[in-house]
Amino acid sequence: MNQNISHFTFIKILKTFSRNEMNEFEKFLRSPFYNNHSTVVKLFCGLKKYYPGFDNEKLTKQLLFSMAGNKSRYDDRLFRKYISRLNKLAEEYMNILHKRSEGISKEINVLNDFIKRDLKEVYSKKLNAIWRTHLPECNIDDEYLLMMYRFYLTQHNFESVKNPEKPNNDFLLKALFNLEGYFLFNSYAIINQIISNNYSFRINQDLEPILGFYTISGIEKFMKKIKKFPALKNERLVLMMELLINTFKMNKSENGYAAYSKLKRLIKENFEKLTPRMLYYIIQNMNVYCIISKKVRKADLSKDLFENYKLLIDKNIFNSSEIMNITLLDFKQILNSALKNNEAEWAENFVKNNSGRLTEIYGSNIIYFSNANLLFHRSNYNESLNNLLKINNEPIAISIDIYVLKLKIFFHQGYLDSSLYVADSLRHFISGNKKLSDNLKTSFLNFIKYYKKISQCIIKRDNESLLRHYSSLEKSVNTREKDWMLKVIRERLK
Q1: pTM for the model
Q2: Using CA atoms, how far apart are residues 256 and 46, in angstroms rounded to an integer?
C-alpha cells in the first residue's frame, strides 16, 4: 500500500531549509568524511525535486525506495534505515551551521588545542590575531560574556603553563566578572519573563519566595565591584549590566519610566554594538512596559510602542538568524500599534511583507484577520466583517480580538441589540478561560461592562446617563478599548 511521507521527521526538517541550504546539504551528503552511503545521496536527490512542499501525491515511500536505486521489492525496514540515516545527517549539518555562527568561540577552542599540543608560538600568533581582528568586531550580548569568560580563562591557563610561578590574577578576575555577569543577566532575564507572564496568565504557584531573592541591589553591588577595577577594561560588561539593571527597574520599580527612558538612550547610543538577539530582548521588554503602562499606570506610551516595533521591523531584527520567527502575538501587537498611531500604510506593508511567516502555520486566517483590522481602520465595516466571517478555527491568540472587533463593527453599523448578545458571549468566554490572569480578565470585563452601558444608553437615547458613563470611563484604569469608547461617546454627544 502506497503511503505519504510527510510525517517523517526528515521531511519536516527539509521543509525548513532554504534553497541555498538544500544545495549545501547535498554537497555535505556527497562528502566521504560525513557519508559513505551512495543510496541516501540518490534518495535525497530524488526528494529535492519536490522541494519545498514535498506534497505531491506521487511522493510515496515506494517511489523514494526506488529512487535510492533499489530495483527489488519495497522493503519497509530498509527504507526506514535510509530515512533514519538522512535524519542523522541533517542534524549533523544543522550542527555545522550552528558552529559556523559561533565566531570567536571557535577560535577559543583552537587556542585551547594549541595549549594542549604545546604550540606556544602558534598560540601567541593566534591570540594576537584574535585581539586585532575578532574582538573589536564582536557585538555584545550575554553569550559575549560567556565567551569572554572562556577567553580570559584560556589566557590564564596558557600563562600558567608558560610561567607556573606567576599567579596571573588579572586574567582570573576578568574571567570571574564575565562569568558572574553572564549568570546575573540570564537569571534576571528569566525573572523578567516570569513577571511578564504573571500579567497575562494565571499562575497558581506562589513565586514571591523565589523572586524575592532577586533584587535590584544585587546587580548594583556587582556594578560597584567591577567599577573598582578600571584597569580591567570592563566597559562592555558595564554596558550589559546597565541594560540589565534598567530592564529590571522598569518592571519592578515604582519609577519605571525613568528606567525606560534610560534604556531608550542606551539603545540609541549603542545600537551598532549590540547583537540582534540582545536588541530584541531589551526592546521587547520595553514593549511590555508600554503595554502595561497604558492599562495599569495610566501612562499612554502607544506612540513609543509603535516606534519600538517599527525599529525591530525596519532594522530587520526579526529577520536575524539569532531570532526565532515572528510570533502571532508579536504580529498582532505590531499591527494594532501601527493602526492606533494612524500608520495604515506602514501597517499594510508590514502585513504584506510578514504575514507569510505565519500563514504556513495558521493558513489564510492571518490574512483575513489582518484585512479585517485594516478595513475597520478605514471605516469599511461591511468588508471588515466579511473578512472576519471567513476565519475558521481561529487561533486562541486572536479569539478575543475577533470578538472585540465584531462588537466594534456592530456598534458602527448600528446593530446594537445584536451586539449585546455578542458581548455576553465574550463575557462567558473570558470568565470561563482558566489560563488568563485576573488582571487581563478584568481589563476585558471592564470593556464589556462599559460597552453594554454605552449601547443601552444609545438604544434608549439617554444622553444624560451616557455623559455619566463617560466621566466614569475616563477615570477607569484597567479597561480595554478605553480610547475607542471615549471617542464614540464624544461623537454621540455632539
Answers
A1: 0.74
A2: 58
